[in-house]
Each structure stands twice: as structure tokens, then as C-alpha cells.
Amino acid sequence: MRPLFDYLLLAALWGASFMFMQLAVGDFGPLPTAAVRLGVAALCLLPLAALRGHMGVIRRHAWPLVVVGLLSSGLPAVLYSFAVMHIPTGISAILNATTPMFGALVAWAWVKDRPNASRTLGLLIGFAGVALLAGDRHGGGPAASSDGLIQVAAILACLVACLCYGAAASFTKVYLSEVPPLATAAGSQMGAALVLVLPALTHLPPRMPSASAWGAALAVGVLCTGLAYVLYFRIIQSLGPARALTVPYVIPVFALVYGIVFLGETLTLRMVGCGLVIALGTAMATGLLRLPLGRRG
Predict the structure, then answer these.
(1) What does the pLDDT read at residue 35?
(2) Of all helices (H) and strands (E), which one includes residue 133?
(3) pTM for this structure?
(4) pLDDT tens-digit readout, 54-70
(5) Smallest Cα–Cα separation from 105: which of 172, 166, 40, 188?
(6) In the predicted model, what is the mean pLDDT of residues 91-114?
(7) How far apart are CA 138 and CA 169, in angstroms?
(8) CA dihedral of residues 86, 87, 89, 94 (deg, nearest 10)
(9) So what's the pLDDT on residue 107?
(10) How far apart are CA 208 and CA 205, in angstroms?
(11) How far is the C-alpha of 252 from the C-alpha of 157, rounded, in Å?
């Protein structure tokens, strides 16, 4: 039962990250929120990496780790911190479920992992679900008002973050395949945090953030990043990487519940329907669900 518990706990923690970011970003701003999150995560992961004797590996692969850190953590943290200021956390989490789909798309373009007919159809279905979700006025769809335009920008920020995640996966496969996962996680978090320090210092909040904002920032760093990575590695060891990659499908469930219970957000049938379409397309795009397309009877 422990692997199942780890799986659900990881989905619950990553689902909570959207809520904690929204609670922190109002006081901190997007850049400082991301910097604090990654800095706290690095402080949690580096001692574990040192205990495993990975510090030498981290030093030898410093620059690739910085790049993958920016792609997998730095840029997405800033983009999602901006997004949750303008769209519901549930919408952000649903869009986050497209991460495996973008990973398949980047792998197709970069490492020539060409998808078959079923996976190609999945890409089309997934992007259709995103388009339907973006067209929802409640969820930030196009509108003539400035609020509508900023919501569109927030949705695009989420999609760019997912594209960064996909690029990070292929970059890791090409340049860091021999590096232990814990070393990759610790080194990448440290590298991304160091890169974000100076930009964050130029965007400091005008007044000291509240205690609740600090608590949310520390929670997203310690629980949703540091502890979450440890759980993620344990799931890879116990259930395998294929099952670990299915966690994004469960994250929106927790994020939607948190948003409704703690933030007073609204769940619409369109959000549920679009989320299911995106999940179906992503499952097909990654090969988790296969249709017998192109086969002869």
C-alpha cells in the first residue's frame, strides 16, 4: 500500500502548489515567489544529495543542471505564479495536465521520437481541449475587456510552462541521462534558484509579506517541491517511470477541491468536460491509451 499512498500524496502535494502560490504571490509577486520556492526546495534537497555522495556529480554537470533547472523549475514557477493571479487555480492545474502531451511533442521535434497515428490524434484532441477551455469566459477565455486579455495571457503562461517541462524532459534525456535523479533534482533547483535571485531582488514587494504569505511560500517550497521530489523518486523506484508520469492526470482533482474548499473558486461543467478531453488527448499522445489506428483487420 505504500506506493499507492506515495502516489496519492504526491498528487495531493503538487495539486496544493497552485493554491499555495496564489496565497503567496499577492504579497511577494511572481518572481520573488518563484525564487523563494526554489531556494527553499534546494535547501531541502541538497543535504539529501550530499548524504548520497552526489555533490561531485552536481559540480561536474553544473551548466546542464542550470539549464534543466530553468526549464523544469525556474521559468514554470514564474509563469504559474503569474497565472494564478488571474485565473482559477483549477484551470491552471487542468492546463498543467498537458505536460506529458507537450513532452511527446518536444520529443517528436527534438529526439525524433515520431508518434504513430494514435498518438498524433491524441495531440490534436488534447489541443482541442485546451482551445475549448480557453474559450470559456469564466476560465479566462478571449474577451474584449482588459481582464479577458490578461486571463488569456495567464492561460498562455501555463502552456508555455508545460512546453518548458516537455523541453526539460528531452534535455535531461540527451544531456543528463547518466546523472542520478536526486542529483538532477537538487542541482537543478539550486541552479534555477541562483539564476532567479537577481531578478527577484529587482522586483521586491513594497512591504514585508504577511505571515500567511510566508507560510504559503515555505509550504510550496518544502512540501510541494522538496518533499514532492523525494516522493517522485520513490514512486519511480517502486512503480516505475511510466506510472510516475501519470501523476499529472490526478493533480487537477486535488487542485480543484482545494480551490473550491479553501479559495471559494467555482467548478463548471465546461471545466470538467475540457479537463476530460485534455486528459484523453494526453493519454493518447503519450501512448498510455492506444487506439488501433492504421492497422489492417
Answers:
(1) 97
(2) helix 117-134
(3) 0.88
(4) 999 999 999 999 999 99
(5) 166
(6) 84
(7) 32
(8) -140
(9) 80
(10) 7
(11) 17
